[in-house]
Specification:
This protein has 644 residues and is an alpha+beta fold. 54% of the residues lie in helices and 11% in strands. It has 4 domains: 6-139, Winged helix-like DNA-binding domain superfamily/Winged helix DNA-binding domain (Arc Repressor Mutant, subunit A, Orthogonal Bundle); 183-324, Rossmann fold; 458-538, Tetratricopeptide repeat domain (Serine Threonine Protein Phosphatase 5, Tetratricopeptide repeat, Alpha Horseshoe); 545-644, no CATH class.
Length: 644
Amino acid sequence: MSQGCKYRFGPFELRVQTRELYKHGLKLKLRPQGYQVLALLLEHAGACVTREELQKRVWPSNTFVDFENGVNSAIKQLRASLNDSAAEPRYIETLPKLGYRMIAPVEYEADAPGARATAAEEESGGAKVVGEAAAPIAARPAHSRKQQWVAAVCVLGIVCVVALLKWPRAHPTPQRAAPAGRIMVAVLPFENLTGDRTQDYFSDGLTEEMIAQLGRLDPKEFGVIARTSVMHYQHSPEKVDQIGSELGVQYVLEGSVRRDSDKVRINAELIEVAGQRQLWAQQYDRELTNLLVVQAEIAREISDAIQLTLGSPERSESVRQPTLTPQAYQGYDLCLKGLYFWNKRNVPGFQQAIEYFQQAIAKDPNYAPAYAGLANSYALMPGYALAPASKYMPKAREAALRALQIDDNLPEAHVALALILENYDWDWSTAEKEYRRAIELNPNYATAHQWYAEFLMWQGRFDEALRESENARRLDPLSLIIATDRGSIFYFSRQYDRAIEQFQSVREMDPSFARVHLVTDAYVQQGRFAEALADLEESRRTSGDGIGSSSKLVYLYGRMGQKDKAQAEMRKLEAENRRQPVDPGVMALAYLGVGNKDAALGSLEKAFVQRSNLLTALKVEPVYDPLRDDPRFQELLRRVGLAQ
């Protein structure tokens, strides 16, 4: 059956024929007068709808007092449904002493060309075609005030009954069999309703913290999609059923956050994907210093709603209640900013994150997550900046150990320590224990599975690595870095066709993602030099990988047999390295390109002295195959702990 004319704005859809409002495909409650006001605003999107026009079209027979009460109530209800704000509107703007205006971009869809009709014409069966801005508004027959009150009481009674029947705590729905495997939930990005983009870190951080809180509830039975994947749906028009299908989840949590100098309002609702039914909704108004407790409350209520719905007899473990002091909240707020920049996964982002984590520690020296964030930022810098590990890793270790001293049950701190032990100490057995401990503490921690998969890959344990990579993918199905790392596993295991296919699939998801150019390495090993050169040139043009891509170019020319070009590029590279020394492991690749094995081994030896994290690839990197029979290379493998 046709759904008739529709208006779309943001994630909302107003269906004129049925007079229903939907968000992400989920039907919202909308009173008749609220519908009429919203439809009129959409009809004149971008223009002022005066209070006089509203009275004439929606409240034609009422007194001025009834009209004032009615329009104020309708606008308030609409803003609640749209999660909008009078002070900082995104949809309905108040024009003082004049009226209201729909300020969001609006799209209109009709069943047939020229099908728009005004409310009066719709009532009378008229077929007059009106201007392009017009939309159907349902007129309401006049009622006496007594009739209105009777109708209002009846409607209120029905709403209360329905609410009680649907409220999961008091009246759970009939128990049903739980889905096979773990219950999967996606926490969609909380909407920032402040109107201030500088507050995005706060709503994004709240999303990440809710993911972490829910991930601790009952990880054996309860899975939570990681931040990277859900952020794809920020400001997205996709419907709940589409999101559920793409992420492989049965439930979706969405919400919004407003904050001012000392208060915060959080709206949250839990939606069952099958049937797109709202199971639970709640609004929280709190002092900012109580935000951590609010997060724990939301996590607990969601857990209860799911357990009651599915008939699970067991309760989850209690969500940890943080110690709340003014210093704790200030540290938390700064830590959110740090995580916001850390998730950008680039050198400027890490540098900004380090500053915020340090400020958080200054505010609250006992806030373990800030130390863990600092440790993870320092630990990733050498690989992203191609800088000496000795510049960052000792600082990373100090921060990780301090985090664990404060809270030994913090998985982020165990993962940070594992990365340091792996990349800097080459203490493989202890690193594996730390990865396993992090996953034990939070099986829903996608990054722990991802980095553990890399750890297994460096050791040549490829089957195990692929299993861990798949665990990470299930928790973070849209993560580009997890998908790219899976391509790396195929590359290092010499499955070049599968590696190229995987890297190309990442390119289809995001052509601008810099690490898709790892496909160059697979092309070279297959002898597909023209494709490798084209991809490398694109990488140099778009991401400017500097000395790293210059080293690859020398190696590629060497493999192509173009020795003169390789030597010319080698001279440029050596001159650049003298001006600004980089990780010696980068130079080793170039020396292999010009066939200078002694210089390559010398560079690898320097990399060992500098504790370069590039040496983690010694055992599995195909470019080192010409060196494998050399006793010096075998000795280096032994010292790095990869000779087994």
